Amino acid sequence: MSALNIEKGSSKHSAYNLRPTFSDVQETHTLAVLVDNEPGVLARVIGLFSGRGYNIESLTVAEVDHTGHLSRITIVTTGTPQVIEQIKAQLGRIVPVHEVHDLTAEGRAVERELALFKVAGQGDKRVEALRLADIFRANVVDSTLESFVFQITGTSEKVDAFADLMRPLGLIEMARTGVAALSRGAE
Question: What is the pTM of this model?
């Protein structure tokens, strides 16, 4: 009996198992996209995501080279490894896109977010809000007798944690910039 016949009951040698296995694990990636700073470019990039049902968790855009008319779009998105690769490939095919960098895959990156929190409260809640703001290194950027506006910078997780603690103390409103990120090192 041949080795193939011995293993007949096993699916180890089946031709059906030769196809690659793809991960269903969702991963969060931060993409940095350098584009021409011209009307309609952001709409085209965002259209790629909405047209294919990809989610954007955070989006920031700003001009980074005034003389070269270039803007940097930082996108935080979630998907399987195959979806992330597909997003990068499709972004790279859009004409006004110059570079696409997956900061998550390329190594360590510095990611920060800025947020403003309006917290209303009196008495002990007001004192507790100030105490927590000090612990989180949040700055008071506006103050009235009824409320504070705190400014905090840090990772998205730090901003989320601060929001969770401010809710029971009278969080009224918040504004977040989204993630800004750069790769670490000389390049």
Answer: 0.78
